[in-house]
Amino acid sequence: MNISVVIPNYNGVHLFPETLPALYQSLEYTGKKYEIIIADDCSTDSSLEFIKRNFPEIILLRNEKNSGFSATINKGIFAAKNELVLLLNSDVKLTESYFTEQFRYFELPDTFGVMGKIIGWNDELIQDGAKYPEMQGFKLKTSLNCLVEDPKENEFIPSLYLSGANALVRRETLHLLGGFNELYSPFYIEDVDLSVRAWRCGFRCYFEPLAVCRHKTSESIRTKEKKLYIRTIYNRNKFYFHAIHLSGLSFAGWLIQTLPELLFRLLSFRTDYLKSFSELIRNRAQIKQSVTDFDQICQKTGIKLSLKEVRKIIVKSLKNRKISFFRN
């Protein structure tokens, strides 16, 4: 299986001198054919000039306006030609043998994809492991990671979702799913949604601890206004996710659980939470369309699991294993 690498970029030129040579090294190590696609979200730095000058073989795609993560990476996804697609953030640096242990997953016909272990840029601290499906009432929490402490040779460790930072996925399934849902633009939760859609319609996601990459955390100082904006988008997208993936009594339970929290935040002068919820109401037609689109995919696969059923599969597969947990 050959590889297409899709990198969404916005003002990441300062990262390229380290990340791109490492990427080439890891791709060459596989012995497979590959292509690299950089989808640029209307950068204002010298990203495009740097790529054209130093890596002219890279396929460059550019948005006419800043469109956010989902729309940008989708442009690269639907231009990719190879059987496997690596969805890679511009601030992630691969190790040489990154791909070696991942190809075996695609020998299973129901594999959607696999992600590797993310550690620090300059240290060995683990930032991301397998994503564990933690439920708080009817709400899915997405910050809990787990590591199997007694790994078996060639085992398959499930992950609720694949981080958008380093997900190796099957292109055919990725196209079937329609790529990332652009409702979540500009950022956050879109990778959770994509993987959960894959699980619910019969595919599986995995974590490979021997596939290691390094992530450079942001050192920028965010203003109070920027933090408020990010929090508003994050909570809005969590609302979107639950509205799309819960139905019937589960959705009713989630709504009953959410309304007191909304009231509490209002009393605490957290108006951003109200704004997030109002976006849920305002965009209910788009949410309904997302549900319809997903139902059509399930009709093609003949499988439609609930979020609860997906959680049960993952938890059961990790039963009686020695596991350590951590949050990110």
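The record above closes out task 2.4. Task 2.5 opens with a second protein, given below.
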Amino acid sequence: MWTAESLKFGAFLAPYHPLDADPALQLRRDIDLMEHLDHLGFDEAWMGEHHSTGAEIVPAPDVFIAAAAERTERLRFGTGVMSLPYHHPLVTVDRITQLDLQTRGRLIFGTGPGKIPLDAHMMGIDPAEQRRRQGEALEAILALLRGEVVNMSTDWFTLRDARAQLPTYDPAGIEVATASTISPNGSVLAGTHGLSLLSLAASSPMGFEVLDRNWGVYEKVCAEHGHIADRARWRLVNPIFLAETREEAERAVSRRIGSMAAYVNRQTGENPAWADTPKGIIDQWRNENLGEFGQAVIGTPDEAIARIERLVEKTGGFGTLLVLHVDMASWADTKRSYELFASEVIPHFKNRNRRREASLQYAQDNRELLIGQLVTAITKAHTDYYGATSG
């Protein structure tokens, strides 16, 4: 049975970065963030794959994860996601199994069709074909990961007596996840193969509305194919930035949040009035949407708790909440945001202070007895000492 105490927490990076800073430093900061998350006790960190539009600057999540894994001890890493239509399935499996061995089983293989239209355009891929290609690639990849010999021919790849020469670190295999946004396509694909489900648009108005419906589709398709729909393997993504007060959170992001609005609006050719000021962007992102990022929490730990509880109520329970990380504050403020999340949000759901609260409550409820006993003990000690010396 699902309980809030079973919730896990992590971060999801595209990664989004402003175009006016050094990409070499931005990449190093992302690796520094992985070390910080590991120190704070987060469970997972995901890194995406993108090849264009400037803001999302990691084209090879496996390369990033290999570096970050050497700086961490317990954090699990997900490819968030690897775009299967862009790669030959055998090469994908070889790179993933190598990374799984290097991280000693700390890898989650997140998969998707590819998101950015310019990526597909540059590779000569028809966007209408990407989901079909994802399904074909996934069929081959899962067979190769199981150790099967695969012969398969499509209009974009051929496998001839293909086999993966490396094992997975865990004989049971690598956890494989597939992305879902608003349509049920991701739920159908994940359910068909018994994969984990990654809901990227969980906090967008449309994505939130269909969360329970898409989970129902996933459960139904899992049952049809003999798989168990386990809520512990369902991950939801929500942008969150925290500070001690709502005003402090707004101050922390106000200088650089405009880069995210520009990233969205330059691609769509729009110039909305709300994008003219940091306050307008913050209000738009909190109350409506900012592109595909969903409604953001830019505020306090209490606001983050309320958002997560809303997601729990809508879904009936899920496995992991991933904070959509956006590089829009100073390094000090960014670290503080995750520290607040780890120190105040996570314990709320993990119920880690239940026994401490019970101990103090008992002391409060029995204060007359306990204080009376303390006074009696002090009085006795005083009497015993002075009584003995006076004699």
